[in-house]
Amino acid sequence: MSTIETTREARPRKGRAGAFAKALGRFLFAAVTTYLGLLAVTFFIGRVVPIDPVLAILGDRAPTHVVERVRQEMGFNLPLYQQFYIYIRGILSGDFGNSVLTTNPVMIDIRRVMPATIELATLGTLIGACVGVPLGVLAAVRRGSIADQVVRVIGLVGYSVPIFWLALISLVIFYAQLRWVAFPGRIDIVFEYTFTPITGFYLLDSAWQGQWDVFYDVFRHIILPASLLGYFSLAYISRMTRSFMLNELSQEYIVAARAKGLSETRVIWGHALRNAAVPLVTVIALSYAGLLEGSVLTETVFSWPGIGLYITNSLQNADMNAVLGGTIVIGTIFIGINLLSDLLYRTLDPRTRNR
C-alpha cells in the first residue's frame, strides 16, 4: 500500500477520534456544571429557609453561649464562599452531616431507604414501558379510531388526576373492599423479624433465599403503588410512542417496505418501531428518573419506607441535613440517568454522534 493511501486512511480515523474527544469533553463539562449547579442550589436553599440548623440540633431553650459555640464549630460564622467550599468538600467525600431525626449519618440513612425507592420505581417503569409502548403503537397505527381515542384518554387521565387522590381511591377499592392487596407498608410485621434482607431489594432477596411466602407478601405490598406509578409512566410513554410512530409511519422507507410486499406486522414492529426505539430509550430513561424523584406522595400515602417518605418526615421535623442530602442524591441520580440516556441516544443513532 502506498504512502498516499495510508495517509488518506489515517485522516478519517483522526477525524473520528477528534469528534469523539469533543463529544466526551462536552459530556463531562455538562455533567460537572450541572452537578455544581445542583450543589449551589441546595446550599443556598439551606441558608435561606427559615430554619436554624443549630437550633434544630440543640433546641429552642439552649443557652446563647452554647448556640454560638456550636455555630462556630459548624462554620456558620464564616463567609458564604468559605461555607460553600466546606459544603462541596463534605458532599464530594460523602459527608452530608448527621440526621437530627435519627442521629445517624445521613448517608447511612439514605443507603437504608434508597433500595425501597429503586425497587418501587423500577417495577413501575417496567409496567409503564411494557404496557405504554404497545398502546402507543396501537394508537399510531389506528390513528383517529376508537382505539386511538381510548389510548389518548388514558394518557390524559394519567396526566390530569393527582396521584395522591388516585392512591387513596385505590386503597379504598383494592384493599378495604376487595382485599386484593396488602396493607400500606413494605412487608408484613410477621416477617420483619424473620426475614433478613441482603441487598435491601426485598423481592430479589426473598427469591434468592427461597422464602416464597415473604416474596408473595412483599409483592402484595408493592404491586398497588408500583401499578400507580406505572400508570403515570404509561401515560407519558404511550403518548411519546404514538408521536414517534406517527413520524416514522409517514417516512418514505415505510412506503417502500409496503410496496415490496412486506407484512404489516413486519413493517410496524420490524421497521417503524425499530427506528422509533432510539428516542424511546431516552423517554423511558427520563420516565424512570422521574419516578425516582417524584414518588414522594406515593410513598407517603402507602407508608413506603423509601427516600421520598424519608425526606418528607425530615422536612416535617426541620431536619435540613437529611432533606438536602436526599435532594442531592436524587438530583445526582437524575443527572446521571439524563446524561446516560443522552449517551445511549448518541450510541444508537449514528446521525447524532457528530453534533
TrEMBL record:
Any Pfam family the entry gives: BPD_transp_1_N
GO molecular function per UniProt: dipeptide transmembrane transporter activity
Subcellular location: Cell membrane
Gene3D superfamilies listed in its UniProt record: MetI-like
Domain of life: Bacteria
TM annotation in the entry: 23-45, 120-141, 153-176, 218-237, 272-291, 322-345
Family in the record: Belongs to the binding-protein-dependent transport system permease family.
The protein's name in its UniProt record: Dipeptide ABC transporter, permease protein
Organism: Rhizobium etli (strain ATCC 51251 / DSM 11541 / JCM 21823 / NBRC 15573 / CFN 42)
